[in-house]
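Support request, please re-run this one:
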Amino acid sequence: MKKFILLITMLITSTVFFASEEAPVMKFWVFSDIHSYAREFELALNDAWNTTPGYDALILNGDVVDLGQIEDYDKVFEVLNRAKDSKTVPEKIEFNIGNHEYYYSYGTGPHGRKYTDILQGRYLEYSNRETFWNVFGMNGIGFISLGSEVTYNKYDNPSTVSAKISDEQLEWFKTQVKEYSGYGRPTFVFLHQPLDNTVYFSKYYRGNVDKDSGIKKVLQEYPNMFYISSHSHETFYTGGNYYQDDSGYTCVDSASVARTASTSESGNHDQTILENTGQTLLVEVYVDKVVFRGRDFIRECWCENGEKTIKLK
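Re-run finished. Output below.
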């Protein structure tokens, strides 16, 4: 009975998905690495609504706050709540965890479990989540968010930046991908950290996700898979924010709202912060393709080298 209901649901949503070949099925924006910069966040929100009024969803893909302190969250949520009151953001807003949500303070080194518990609880409260991973469907399309379960903890994961994904979360991920993939639809997967040797930044900064190979294996098994990461702050202007694997899946780096940067090829973790720029990512889903467009909301223009179109199979 459960399988029958699922089939009927998928057939209904397929009708919605294939309703028109000319207009986008949906539009959504990805913002990342806001780092508690309230002014820039508000500019980005206003620009997105003015550019695509009535868009369907907003994904905040980690490092929304610079530190996991209440005052950092309050800065950002004051802006977001003001936009909600003025109805200039969509109802669907997804807040994923990054590495900075795990930072209690700077200069103290990896902390212990006490602070990890405080920071995790704070994130779950503000994101209105029960877990660090989540899924929702819209127009028959799956939006799957993964999230590090700890970082910057001297007992569990002393790395200040990498994502730690449990076996439980990986198995859940496999189940969700299997459920949503099919019928020519795309499936969008979000994690703050990029997969190694995919987008430009990840060729020089490696070890970003401890379940790297496991996630890649899942992405390789299904068509029309899109993995959207952040973390790097890498500007769209350099043209390295898109990667298409030989197996078919696509990786996209969403740049950053605050402190957009350009990564050096030296491999010495050198980045140059760009002046007078802040960038976001617009995703337009059509019946036969997905179009990604990097946006510079400070300059109010689309980014050179920031557009990519992927045909659906």
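The longest helix spans residues 2-17. Confidence is low (pLDDT under 50) at residues 1-16.
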